[in-house]
Amino acid sequence: MNNIEKIRQKLAEKDLDAVIIENEKNQRYASGFPFTDGSVIVAKSGSWLITDARYIEAANLIAEGVTVLMYERQKPLREFISELIADAGVKRLGIEEKTLSYGRYLELKEQLPCELVPAQYIFADLRASKSEEEIGYMKEAQAISEAALDEVLGIIRPGMTETEVAAELVYRMLKHGSEGNSFDPIVVTGAKTSMPHGVPGDNAIKDGDFLTMDFGCLKHGYCSDMTRTVAVGHATDEMRKVYSIVLEAQLAGIASSAAGVNGCDIDAAARKVISDAGYGEYFGHGYGHSLGLDIHEAPNANPLGNTPMPAGAVVSAEPGIYLPGRFGVRIEDVVVMREGGCEVITKAPKQLIVL
Description:
Elements: H1 3-13, E1 18-21, H2 24-31, E2 39-43, E3 47-51, H3 56-62, E4 67-70, H4 77-87, E5 92-95, H5 102-111, E6 115-118, H6 120-128, H7 132-153, H8 162-175, E7 186-189, E8 210-215, E9 218-219, E10 222-223, E11 226-231, H9 237-255, H10 263-276, E12 288-290, E13 297-301, E14 314-317, E15 320-323, E16 327-330, E17 333-338, E18 341-344
Parallel strand pairs: 1-5, 3-4, 5-6
Antiparallel strand pairs: 1-2, 2-3, 7-8, 8-11, 9-10, 12-13, 14-17, 15-16, 17-18
């Protein structure tokens, strides 16, 4: 079953006649084409990708399961949409209420003689569980990230700045086949490692510092995500202790991860290790999030994650301890939820590395 057919099944479940897709990632999920700058419409009677002259040739080559149409000044996008909706007899049209701008919603409401119905759940539900093809793409992206990390670990030295390390990671991911970053890399050293989402700057690495690198890339449109915290020169006993607690917490979360397990229970397994060690107040974020075409997707493995993990969900495993003004440690892998357990697709070593 292709993704268009899966979307049609969802339409039938919710008594929708069609859905209009304008979010770039959902368009790619539906049609396989990443560059529309237009609309994708999936109805019971047909499916269409409407784009302009910049993308028409590529769309005809790449898009699957849709009829490709080209809008232009003589026949703009709104005319195509109106005609298709009318010809398909659409009375109830699904929209992406969480990503559609209010201005665009008003335009659609004015131009279309049908009811606009919130339908974001279609894509949240379908994209939560990845196919084996999608998982394969994410494994490719992960392997690229790890190849870049392996090279960068060989050049890190005191005096390098956070920005220089970030630049090396990005360059080497591109060199190994990345299509771009899945998010802006987080590279922080010294006291800044206590900031979970610190921004790389001119801070220079010093002997005895932790260096945290959180980064990922895109392959076939799908994301990788990983974090490694390494010590440069040497690590104190306290640094080693905190690192070992975070690693133990991550392993506990991974051990509890499986299809059918609530995200909050996975989070709790990891959080208990950190709390029992006396560092509970220093772990302020959730244990993990799903990822795929977007770096943050649903469902989540956090204290509010009351949704059972579906088989095929791809979820980060990233507990951390952050001691303000001193240092922090985060270790992140990515796992695939399977029946009876999970598959860890991150292969990079995670025992403490002292460079």
